[in-house]
Amino acid sequence: MVRSIKNPKKAKRKNKVKGIGSSSAAAPPMPVKVWQPGVDKLEEGEELQCDPSAYNSLHAFHIGWPCLSFDIVRDTLGMIRTEFPHTAYFVAGTQAEKASSNSIGIFKISNISGKRRELVPPKKSTTPVTDMENDDDDDDSDSESESEDEGPDGSGSQVLQLRSVAHSGCVNRIRAMTQSPHICASWADTGHVQIWDFSSHLNDLAASESNIEGGSIVHTQAPLFKFGHKDEGFAIDWSPLVPGRLLSGDCKNYIHFWEPTSDASWKVDNTPFIGHTASVEDLQWSPTEQDIFASCSVDGTIAIWDVRVGKKAVDSFKAHDADVNVISWNRLASCMLASGSDDGTFSIHDLRSLKNKERDTVVAHFAYHKHPITSIEWSPHEASTLAVSSADNQLTIWDLSLERDEEEEAEFRAKTEEEVNAPQDLPPQLLLAHQGQKDIKELHWNSQIPGMIISTAGDGFNILMPSNIQNTLPSEGA
Compositional bias (Basic residues) at which positions (predicted)? Predict the structure, then answer.
């Protein structure tokens, strides 16, 4: 599995976000071409450009060092928010050059602006597609410049407020507890899993409207709890049903079960769950059964476990022909589990099929990506929608309920009145292919802001809201 960020170095501030589309800066306007990584090659003089009509909102930011993992922190601003500008809270762990330079960032992004866009763009213009952000390498600029994405005050600049807490070693993965989001668990490359209480930092961020310390001050804070595995790992998951219940899995194929004994203490079962023959890459608690969880491994399998019946898996099945890097359990359709592999494929499994004689769990399989899948996650609002990221520098969004309709496609092309050189073999389930980030590592949907996805990569974070997710469009007045 591709996990570490190669040659991590301090991120350079660069406002240009590249994406789908290709044209020459020096050449006259020409028809837009959809560019596919791993298929198309850039010719001399060509550059990739973003099509802003694909987004309701698109922002980029960074917190200094690259981050391999982050999580969205649930806030008290409202469970379902559709009006711009938006605010969101995050935690993220760094991948610094020196172990002593690592930290966990607790941050707030406010004034996330955007607007509703029509599915069918306005009449064709002769003006070439422009970048979502200006091509200015000024290290002091963090703001976006596209006028139609400006906030209500006339500025499109999002506000980043950051607090940093020292962390020993690189952060392989970090997760915030669903029920108490100020409690976070971090997996370090030192082999330790630590539990943190970030309530004071989150309270300070909530009370302020201006930049807090800019992240330049790194606070020293002791974790609430610490447990050492026999090796480092990446797999970790909080239970969505039992507050404080946690799982952690390592590269020695051991899975440890954590049970809270108080608000600030845990009992970790020293006898691990053992069943995989190679590194445990990801863990997911069942969204409906509090004692059931799933794991995936470099050995190509997915295993199902019950914490009540011993340390052996109750079932397992071959999921891919290569390493299984990531899994996601659908919280709206609990029989469905998605998995992503090192060979670039991802599959949808119906766990009910395990009861059948054939035991063929795969109900959908996609080979669109050409490089390892690095993250996969079901939408918290639509049971048939999921997002996938890959080492091919793409983040894709899929709606599995869609089927190809040639008449509808022809009608759409006629309405747009554009000569779009689009590949004919794109899967009909593919809603969006987002590009522009290098070395994408993890993505998450924001459960409180429908349609919002955040992703982290070697060159920073992106916040995007696609324009073609119909049920999540803001109101006309936004």
Answer: 1-17
Cis geometry, peptide bond prior to residue 85 (ω within 30 degrees of 0):
yes
Q: What residue type is assigned to position 94 of the chain?
A: T
What is the C-alpha separation between 470 and 402, in angstroms, rounded?
13
Q: What is the pTM of this model?
A: 0.84
Structure token pair of residue 233: 């790992």
Strand partners of residue 418: none
* Domain-located, residue 127: no
User: Any idea how long the chain is?
Assistant: 478
Query: What letters, b where the CB count within 10 A reaches 16 and e where it falls short, cover 161-183?
Result: bbbbbebbbbbbbbbbbeeebbb
Concatenating the DSSP letter of every residue in 287-303 gives SS-TTEEEEEETTSEEE
Residue 67 lies in a domain: yes
**Cβ atoms within 10 Å, residue 380:** 16
User: What are the tokens at 406?
Assistant: 């040639």
Q: Token digits for 386?
A: 């999921």
Residue 473: exposure state from Cβ atoms within 10 A (0-12, 13-18, ≥19): buried
Beta-ladder partners of 73: 89
| pLDDT per position as a tens digit, 410-465 | 665 565 555 555 566 789 999 999 999 999 999 999 999 999 999 999 999 999 99
* 134 domain-assigned: no
Count how many domains the chain has. Answer: 1
Task: Give Cα 180 to chain centroid, integer Å.
Answer: 21
Q: Tell me how far CA of residue 154 lies from CA of 15, 149, 150, 225, in angstroms.
A: 19, 9, 6, 46
DSSP state of 446: -
Domain assignment of residue 160, given as a range: 56-115+156-228+445-470
